[in-house]
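Wed. Picked up where I left off yesterday with Phenazine biosynthesis-like domain-containing protein. The coffee machine is broken again, so keeping this brief.
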Amino acid sequence: MKLPIFIADAFTTKAFRGNPAAVCLLENKLDEDLHQKIAKEMNLSETAFIRKLHPNDNFTQSSCFGLRWFTPQSEVPLCGHATLASAAVLFHKIKNVNSTLTFVTMSGELKARKEEDGIVLDLPLYPAHPQKLHEVEDLIKTAIGDTLVQDVRYSPDTKKLLVRLSDTYNRSFLESLTVNTENLLQVETTGKVKGLILTLKGEPGGQTQAFDFYSRYFAPWYGVAEDPVTGSAHTVLSSYWSEQLGKKDLHAFQCSNRGGELTISLRSDGRVDIKGGAALVLEGTLTA
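Structure written out below (tokens, as returned):
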């Protein structure tokens, strides 16, 4: 078996920043267990598998494909950065002739649109509802200790817990915060929470670029201690910060060691456009 495989860094224009995803192009049906084995071998937060939906499709001319995402541990229902990486491979490496691609996924149809300054993902927008602190207090305290918390929300659609840190903190505090992910699996065993979002209100631009909000994202329940830049987390963050700031257009930065920028526009149809760049850093052939 020989599979074309690529690694692209998403939500950045520079190699070795943003969030790396492996992308496999499947000419033929792949044995089910091999998806997970390949993802484990790649050992990135996500490996994406693009498949043809019809026998006569091809990666250069067709505009609609199947798409699945796997962490080293399990399949996930939505991954923004690996969708962006997949579109980047098709647009920029395979030279797909279409300006918009449609991916059929576990989260419905997702579209990726090519623009001069990046790729725009059309993603679902998920509301986050007020969460009683006492129900998740142990989880939060385990993760961030005595760090002051301003708001706690929960997204039942994505099983993500959004924790807004106090406005008294700044970006450098969030970047340097040590988060204990190892013990979260022992504290949260109900299956209710599958991802932890820490977020902070942005600061006006001075010496640095202005961002509306900052975040970090942790998903040890999927085998990913910290994810560098997370499109799926921003389907929740976009909803929350649009409501908090009274804005439909937002500029966000995820404060991991690699870092990544996202340009966000909430749409009138209840979905969200999230735009980012991508840098292709590796291409090769997987042999098994």
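Quick read: The chain has two domains: 2-123+276-287, 129-269.
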